[in-house]
Design goal:
By secondary structure, this protein is mostly beta strands. 4% of the residues lie in helices and 48% in strands. The longest helix has 12 residues. Belongs to the pirin family.
Length: 321
């Protein structure tokens, strides 16, 4: 998925200087962003208060939207570098096309994982015809320097492992949770999991104290470590936790995001993750000139032009604003 903000900000994030080393309860408020022709998303990362959680560098939550009479998601071909995109749906379908020739419909509770490496381009759209509801999350994972030029590839996994407890089913999307590992390729110590809670459930989820964590609420009424987390909001939890208390007042779904704090500082602008402003500038030029990122075939429409770079020089600001 693309960052379609036409005023995309250039920022530096990562590094361990702003990682919260102890458990905290920091509620992050989303920013509403228009995505494509008809989809509005709630952007949780990067946020005014925090830019990364482990290697997770971008989180959008959308829906549930009634798109029965609408085109649904329509994101034209656009480029990526230096990151992985993670597509996760609760309702609806998304048709993925990319410059490698991949053509794949991603459905609820299936993992669509695209690793950009040095360069890839893709589009995302609701199929025709499509389901009435569209609800999901789109996330980016920053690639560490040792792997950011890896060969681009796309993975689709329909059978993901789970961790269960009374009233709780945790589907492991990426990385590992409680010794259970996703088949998706990860390049840093990381976890992404979908937590399904039944009404009245009380559970304690085992965590790695060396990871930092956040929890995104997808729907329902749930408390995370005693804090009510409403749908479309995210609670940052810091590090130093060995378990996470969860309680559900209704059927609810959460996403657990975590990982070893990302040691490198990264420059993230529009749909690119690099290490310097010069890298970002070069990537923009090569996308606009038709070089490097390949061609997405089969999408009915023009590719997405890059916004203008900001006129001010890059100022490092770390993981938090």
């Amino acid at each position: 998925m693309s960052n379609l903000d036409r005023q995309a900000a250039l920022s530096v994030c990562g590094g361990r200087g702003f990682v919260v080393a102890e458990p905290v309860r920091e509620l992050l408020t989303p920013r509403r962003v228009q995505l494509g022709e008809s989809t509005e998303v709630r952007r949780l990362l990067p946020n005014l208060g925090r830019r990364m959680v482990g290697a997770w560098a971008f989180v959008d939550h959308y829906g549930p939207d009634d798109i029965a009479e609408e085109p649904g998601m329509q994101v034209p071909p656009h480029p990526h570098m230096g990151l992985q995109t993670v597509s996760w749906l609760h309702d609806g379908e998304v048709l993925h096309r990319d410059s490698l020739g991949s053509l794949q419909t991603v459905r609820p509770r299936e993992l669509g994982l695209m690793t950009s490496g040095r360069a890839i381009s893709h589009s995302e759209e609701s199929p025709k015809p499509h389901a009435r509801l569209l609800h999901g999350a789109q996330l980016w994972v920053a690639l560490p320097d040792a792997h950011r030029n890896v060969e681009a590839h796309f993975q689709h996994h329909t059978d993901l492992p789970t961790v269960t407890a009374p009233g709780l089913t945790a589907t492991v999307i990426l990385g590992a949770l409680d010794g259970t590992e996703s088949p998706g390729t990860a390049y840093t110590p990381i976890v992404g999991a979908d937590l399904a809670l039944t009404r009245g459930a009380e559970a304690r989820l085992p965590l790695d104290p060396d990871f930092e964590y956040a929890v995104l609420s997808m729907f329902g009424e749930a408390e995370v470590d005693g804090v009510p987390v409403l749908s479309g909001s995210m609670l940052y939890l810091g590090c130093g936790r060995t378990e996470l208390p969860l309680r559900a007042d209704s059927d609810a779904a959460l996403m657990l995001l975590g990982g070893e704090p990302f040691e490198e500082e990264i420059v993230m602008w529009w749909n690119f993750v690099g290490r310097t402003q010069d890298e970002i500038t070069q990537a923009r030029e090569e996308w606009m000139n038709g070089d490097r990122f390949g061609t997405v075939r089969g999408y009915d429409g023009a590719r997405l032009p890059a916004p203008a770079l900001p006129p001010v020089p890059l100022k490092p600001r770390g993981r938090v604003r």
